Model the fold of this input.
Amino acid sequence: MHMADALLSPAVGGALWAGTLGTIILSAKKLSAKMDDKLIPLMGVLGAFIFAGQMINFTIPGTGSSGHIGGGMLLAILLGPYPAFLVIASVLMIQALFFADGGLLALGANIWNLGIYPCFIAYPLIYRALVGHSKSPKMITLASILSVVVALQLGALSVVLETKLSGITELPLSTFLALMQPIHLAIGLIEGFVTAGVVIYVRSLRPDIVEDLEGVKSVAAGGSIKKVFIGMAILAVITGGAFSWFASAHPDGLEWSIEKIYGKPEVPVQENPIRENLSKLQEKTAILPDYALPSKGGEENAENPPAPWPAVDPGTSLSGIIGGLMVLALIILFGFGIKLMNRNKAKM
Amino acid sequence: MKFETEFFNIGYLDTLSYRDTFVHRLDPRIKITVSFIFILFVVSFPKYELSALIPFFLYPVFLLSVGNIPFNAIAKKILFVSPFAVFIGMFNPLLDTNILLAPFGVPVTGGWVSFLSILVKFILTVSTALLLIAITSFPGICEALERLKLPKVFVLQLLFLYRYLFVLLDVALRMLRAREARSFGKKGKEIKTFIKLISVLLVRSVERAERIYQAMLSRGFNGEIRVLKRHTLRVSDLLFGVAAVALFYFFRRVDVVNFLGETVSGYLR
Done:
């Protein structure tokens, strides 16, 4: 359920990046205030463990297909919220870079969706509240299944909301939710069961390691999570606002400045095909932002289609195709030219 | 086996990043910033925009060709990448059936245009992310992140993660191979076995972290990692950054494609 750049608008992506970045900085500050040096290699190696663990697959009962562990909640249980959040952010960052899972703008959203919920909601409010210092396997199982399910449901819900807010998809909210939530309920149940299994088994295998982790965790804990929430919310709102202001103020920016310079929107024109095209082009760039307005689709529209909008103009789309192919050809030629130059250089 | 190839791929991109070309030599801070700005520009187009996105291919093609990165390596990765965007975009042609364009008299609905627009944006953004790592070593990226004022703790453990990634992947692959050698068909892949395998991997990882920490202590670790090669911001870095962003801005404001197309079809007439 990795979010992708192509589904995000700059405002939504930017707001989530800001919230994520703020949380990373806050978590790091919490850690470095009173940190055990030991924690840094431990965090790094556990991050690498999540990667390596994802290479090992298992058969999902009843379906025959295979799955792997997500590991967010496991990290939160093992390390505590702040270090776990940093590790999850790192794992997702490496996935974004090396596997191109989503992309760089969506990385902020992905860290938010997969990091914030397990670390700062599910772990403190559900897992720690239920388990406390109890070692009962039943309680651990119940708590981890519940917390993974909640975290994943919130994550999936966020993916839906982020996509909807970005306004790229035509999927109605209800259908989108019906697509995402049940799948993630099933994933959550299995992941929760596996997480509980690992926590219990590691405890029986090496109780000393678990005790040790508890010690490291308690050093890194402390401070209220409420502050994190407030900080995140403020950051997200400010950047979201700034970005959408930028987006709404900007499309007309060029025209506005032309108007300012020339007094009138129209620039004195001479008879000249290029000039003509330029002014046409200017019209087009001015119309462009409104492009996204109509064409809602949906059930009502399917029955009595509204008047076609924008007016179908075969000329425009033709020139778009011709121009597009030309530009693409030029770019490819450019790429080949440089490759050829490189090869020649290598030969010499 | 799929996992082994994926594992191999990380190593492959890593080896590409140690080449020595103009784009490899650029300061990682500039590369990260420019790539991020590029993505913001691409994503800022409204959902029915298609032709104006095409000039933006210049940036990934530039990185690919100047960086001497094999085209197939990147193309294959884009094809196999998680299809979430494609999956969500697929619904647009079904749901949005208003006719938007009619080239050569063939009606094209808004849904198809927005779906294609999602695909183009997807290719542009994903290839940029992959190329960024193909032309910048991971330690270089970490150095840039630190100098872009990200917290040191975060960057340090990120460096650790990357270093031990390869080691632990090896451990996991050995375990996988052992499981495969001892079981037939679907046997050995039950959740119960899986939990035990993962737990053992976890224990081994924690033990390794312990050993690493002791080794580091004995070598005088005091919470800082020193690197030999530090990048300094040169004039060419700044020039590249300014030129790239100016070009993105130009492509965003001026519809080059339609201008070219109209001029050409005007002359043809």
Observations:
- DSSP finds 13 helices and two strands in chain B.
